Amino acid sequence: MAGVSEEVKEFMKSDTVKDFTKDIEQYHLGPLWEAIPEIMNHTPKPQAQAYLWSDELIKKKMGEAAQIFTPDRGGERRAIYFQNPGLTYRQPWGWASTTQTIYVAVQMLLPGEKAPSHRHSQSALRFISEGQGAYTIVQGERIFMEEGDFLITPKGLWHGHEHVGDEPMLWTDALDIPTLYGIGGTFFDPYEGGLQEPNIPDNFTEKRYRGGMVRPVGDDKYTVAPLANYKWDRTVEGIKGLMSFDPDPHHGFAVEYINPSTGKAANPTLGTRMQHLPAGMHTKALRHTHSTVYQVHRGEGYTVINGTRFDWKKGDYFVVPNWAWYEHYASKDSYLFSVNDIPIMDRFELEIEQAYESNNGHQEVTGEFKAAFR
Ligand code: GTQ
Ligand code: FE2
């Protein structure tokens, strides 16, 4: 309450004001004078916290889930999602997402298993962590998935999964579930008859886009990305090209997955990147309005988030909340996959970024995060 006299401050704490504030509550009326500091903070004050889930924890709990149920006998998918401890039981809708706008899960499909087709208004994307031999079938196209591939499942399209290979498959799902829940935009339909049958050639869109930066004539008309699977070796080629030059001081060697028809994010509601940090690279600290969920695809290192050091290695997932200072250090050659909500921030014209100026761009480390099961 800048510019307000002591006398007025005292009055706002008086019984007269307190009693009135209490009185209006019973009529579902809210006192803005109480709410302003929380809801109109000077700079973003995310409820989501910085957090890390270890590979060991995820593997252990996935193994247990596999003993308990299969995706075709209940629950649609064997997916375990990351509940941000800052959001647990606090969001008005009673569940916790990973950041305020992003839902991230790990999904496991075992050889012989099927996950039935369905469609929904949420846009989904997947990043394949381990294995091969399963396909996702999106609107009749079977798309075979391998480690390192990035896939999109645009909103409204029928999709299901089946494993016809012989090793367990694990992948990351990221969806705009919290945003759509929050704005009241959720639609969901199950597919009659389980898993949809193929009706176009396998890997159709991937074949049509084998050229990379050349696209089939006529594809400028698409609004939904006409490419379903962004193969790992092509992503790595993009990164190798960047490595002929100096790395970006904040991001290392980083690329983003785009819709080849529009040049915008592959998924219209969530942005996605792959970044390579060679062993020894230490990026400079940055903060921005968007939040990010990282998956360590390969390597080992740490990220300092608002002064706390989060050690990571292959298979870990961690959250950098909105407006938090963060910098990465790689002790081994590392690849980080990440999901962000830049497209949402952009739509509100709120994508704002600041570089950490003091101490040559590096924060002071004041604490260490202890992950469960490590
Ligand atoms: O695989 O279709 O983690 O619909 C959440 C919702 C996965 C999926 C999730 C979904 C899916
Ligand atoms: Fe789905």
TrEMBL record:
SUPFAM superfamilies: RmlC-like cupins (SSF51182). Residues 106-173 form the Cupin type-2 domain. The keyword Oxidoreductase applies. Keywords: Dioxygenase, Oxidoreductase. Gene3D superfamilies: Jelly Rolls (2.60.120.10). One of its GO terms (molecular function) is dioxygenase activity. It comes from the Bacteria. This is Gentisate 1,2-dioxygenase.
